[in-house]
């Protein structure tokens, strides 16, 4: 099995420059995390977008969907900003023969205290074990696309069931 990792930006890849929260979306952090974790699975990186998820529009989601549809791999992990991750996941539903797992972080992977590494590990396990479909891996839980929302006040994702 070979995994395709598609990066779209979001907090997981943010780089902050000063105390006033000036930032930009930096290089993908997945290669560093996978290397440090000793990930032995064969994988390929596709840096697709470098945007905050609030800036993603229908055209961007179409680009993400096309990348998933055209990927040779049936296992796809997407890093994405958390604000609109659930919306993108819904947009990706219905792609046959693909297991797609979206994940992100509430704090950048470059921070000492971050959920990024844990979320990437959860997503990596999920993409290898779940059947074809679209899922979100956040806060130690897996959610099906269309059945999850971000609770901004509680800083976590919740099932709509």
In short:
The chain is of the alpha/beta class and 161 residues long.
Describe this structure in words.
By secondary structure, this protein is α/β, with parallel strands linked by helices. It has helices at about 30-35, 60-70, 85-90, 115-130; strands spanning about 1-10, 15, 25, 40-50, 75-80, 100-105, 135-140, 140-145, 150, 155-160. The mean pLDDT is about 95. It contains four helices and ten strands. It has one domain: Rossmann fold (3-Layer(aba) Sandwich), CATH 3.40.50.1170.
What keyword list fits this structure?
alpha/beta; Rossmann fold; two-stranded antiparallel ribbon; 4 helices; 27% helix; globular
* Mean pLDDT over the residues: 93
Strand percentage lies at: 25-35%
Please state the oligomeric state of the protein chains shown.
Answer: single chain
| Physical arrangement of strands within the biggest beta sheet | 4-1-5-6-7-8
Number of domain modules: 1
- Poorly predicted runs: none
Element pattern in H and E: EEEHEHEHEHEEEE
CATH topology: Rossmann fold
What about the largest sheet?
A: 6 strands, mixed
CATH C-level name = Alpha Beta
Structural class by helix and strand composition: alpha/beta
Q: Please compute the radius of gyration using only Cα atoms.
A: 14 Å
Active site: 11, 82
InterPro entries: Asp/glu_Ase-like_sf, Asparaginase/glutaminase-like, Asparaginase/glutaminase_AS2, L-asparaginase_N, L-asparaginase_N_sf
Keywords: Hydrolase
GO molecular function: asparaginase activity
């Amino acid at each position: 099995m070979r995994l395709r990792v598609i990066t779209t930006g979001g907090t997981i890849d943010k780089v902050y420059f000063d105390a006033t929260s000036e930032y930009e979306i930096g290089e993908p952090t997945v290669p560093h995390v996978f290397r440090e974790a000793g990930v032995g699975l064969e994988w390929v990186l596709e840096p697709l977008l470098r945007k905050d998820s609030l800036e993603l529009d229908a055209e961007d989601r179409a680009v993400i969907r096309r990348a998933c549809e055209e990927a040779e791999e049936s296992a796809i992990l997407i890093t994405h900003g958390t604000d609109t991750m659930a919306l993108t996941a819904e947009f990706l539903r219905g792609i046959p023969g693909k297991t797609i797992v979206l994940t992100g972080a509430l704090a950048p992977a470059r921070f000492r205290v971050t959920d990024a590494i844990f979320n990437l590990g959860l997503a990596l396990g999920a993409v290898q074990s779940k059947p074809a479909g679209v899922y979100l891996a956040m806060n130690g839980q897996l959610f099906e696309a269309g059945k999850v929302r971000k609770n901004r006040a509680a800083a976590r994702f919740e099932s709509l069931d």
